[in-house]
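Worked example 3. Consider a protein that binds pyridoxal-5'-phosphate.
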Amino acid sequence: MRDNPNNKSQWQPATMTIHAGKHADEHGALVAPLYQTATFAFANTAQGSARFAGEEGGYIYSRLGNPTIDQLEQRVAALEGYPAAAASATGMGAVSAAMLAFLQQGDHVVVADAIYGCSFALFSHLFRKFGISVDFVDMTDPANVQAAMQPNTKMVFIETPANPHLKVIDIAAVSAIAKQRQARVIVDNTFMTPLLQQPRKQGADIVIHSATKYLNGHGDVVAGVICASQEDIELIKATTLKDMGATMSPHDAWLILRGLKTLDVRMERHCKNAQVIAEFLQQHPHVREVYYPGLPGHPAQALLGTQMQGAGAVIAFELEGNIDDARNMLDSLQLITIAVSLGDAETLIQHPASMTHSPYTPEARAKAGISDTLIRIAVGLEAVTDIQNDLAQALERTFATSTNTEKQGETLTYG
Ligand code: PLP
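Given these inputs, the predicted complex is written out as structure tokens:
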């Protein structure tokens, strides 16, 4: 590739999503080729042993490194503002590889109380099984983090906005507390993407993504990425990723590189659509509460424009009625798909209590405020009027037939 006269480090994020990590191709292919190979041939035994000894650069085997995966790692690292990144097979592969590389028996971790269900299961079951103790705290008040820190606290895990209520955590405030104890701060930035939030600026040591979501954006890949310092990434790659083996496939890396090129335009549309849907839900007579950082009065408003450059496109709302009403409402949808995940072109809706957050115990669900009538919608890229009309007809149908007598007799009007 011809040298770009611009200073790459000053590129805008939208430019980085297309160009960062680009490397030369001998044929001049615009799109970097997919290196769909498990292993790499050595010219001779001397070269093979030199590569294994680390005396010579170059590829050995795709679990240890691959040019397509390297390119993706460089692009995401540039977007998040870290020197390096490591791609993983899934978002959970990123969470577990990034954490376990730095933890051992006897260590303690402080974790945000409302997080993705499988992260909760990993910390509350598997970590404990290996002698790593975990405290879940409400990090919306950083004083709770201060109170939970122990001499053996090695890591502090944040998800913000937090699944599924969109609770927002002040990363800078929590990072400052963790730094007093030399604990590493790790942020799950899946809901925001680096275009809306760069946790490194607030002091995070490590950022992880479920690249399954917005980074890829097309619902056809399950993947993860870890961003951190060169030293931390080398350690993660050489230990938990290499030996536990949750590394990314080159084909998935190639698809995510393609998806990333439209991240900027997709996020703009996602956020615009979500704002309209959140406002529609908020005025709806059968919706009791809407959780969306873009709504006036949401606690996240204080961090919008500083920590967060946008409100994202995930909305949670509390329906009136009971679990049957919640289920009927989802079953009445005609356009919107009942599915977990987020960040796809399609609008997806799910019932956290029985789906993403079912790994929580009923007590933990109650403590985290995940009721039977809480619904999460990940607003997609369709025409927003079609999304809104579908929600309107499903709500109308549900409450026209609801056995919940409180609702009888109410007249609904839909704009
Ligand atoms: N983090 C968040 C916030 C998520 O929503 C998810 C999945 O939904 C994950 C991590 C796990 O990612 P994956 O499904 O790619 O393993």
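Take a moment to read the result before moving on. The first strand starts at residue 84 and ends at 88. DSSP finds 13 helices and twelve strands in the chain.
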